[in-house]
Amino acid sequence: MKNLIILLIGMSSFLAITQEKKAAASEPYNLEGVWELQHQFLYNENNQVSDTILNQNGYRQIKMYSKGKVMWTRFDPKDSNEWFGYGTYTIKEGMLEERLEYASGPMMKIVDTIQVFKFELVIDKDSYQQIDLDEEGHYSQSENYTKIR
Q1: How many CB atoms lie within 10 A of CB 149?
Q2: What is the rounded CA–CA span in Å between residue 90 and residue 149?
Q3: CB 96, CB 105: distance < 8 Å
Q4: Beta carbons within 10 angstroms of residue 70's beta carbon
Q5: How would you write the chain as a 3-class SS string?
Q6: What is the tens place of the pLDDT at every residue in 57-80?
Q7: What angle is formed at CA 67 by the lines to CA 62 and CA 69, rounded to 5 degrees?
Q8: Which of 130, 102, 103 is nearest to 117 (CA)?
Q9: Which of 10, 66, 60, 13 minimizes the C-alpha distance to 37?
Q10: Given this model, what pLDDT does residue 18 score?
């Protein structure tokens, strides 16, 4: 009887550890943290990268994600407009959806016409891409970020 109890405890421990490892391995990365735009891709009709747009001359764009909230800001020394926004985000079935609630003047004009910003999300531990899809579902352009915090 004692051996049976020890065997059952051992099997239960093994199953619990195995389940925990499977859950950790299948758990997707999340966007929690601070991210900086590295560059952008433009795509051709075959969803292949056709061009890369590098940040130049002091251009910076930062996005912060925390507890379902998103906040971003952009600095472009060649643009006198302020660019920033704040809102909520969700990730469902590989798609990132952002809904801005508050933004700078130029961005609010865009928010008035686009209520929800939807992107295909490709993410790993230290980087992610948010890919714009056209009306036919083809890639049009992406923003490519690396995690800075």
Answers
A1: 8
A2: 20
A3: no
A4: 22
A5: CHHHHHHHHHHHHHHHHHHHHHHHHHCCCCCCEEEEEEEEEEECCCCCEEEEEECCCCCEEEEEEECCEEEEEEECCCCCCCEEEEEEEEEECCEEEEEEEEECHHHHHHHHHCCCEEEEEEECCCEEEEEEECCCCCEEEEEEEEECC
A6: 999 999 999 999 999 999 999 999
A7: 50
A8: 130
A9: 60
A10: 42
Q: Contact 60/77 with Cβ under 8 angstroms? A: no
Cα distance between residue 148 and residue 76, in whole Å:
19
Q: Give buried/exposed letters for 24-56 (b at 16+ CB in 10 A, else e).
A: eeeeeeebeeebebeebbebeeeeeeeeeeeee
User: What does pTM read for this prediction?
Assistant: 0.78
Q: How far apart are CA 84 and CA 90, in angstroms?
A: 19
The first and second tokens of residue 48, run together, are: 């292949």
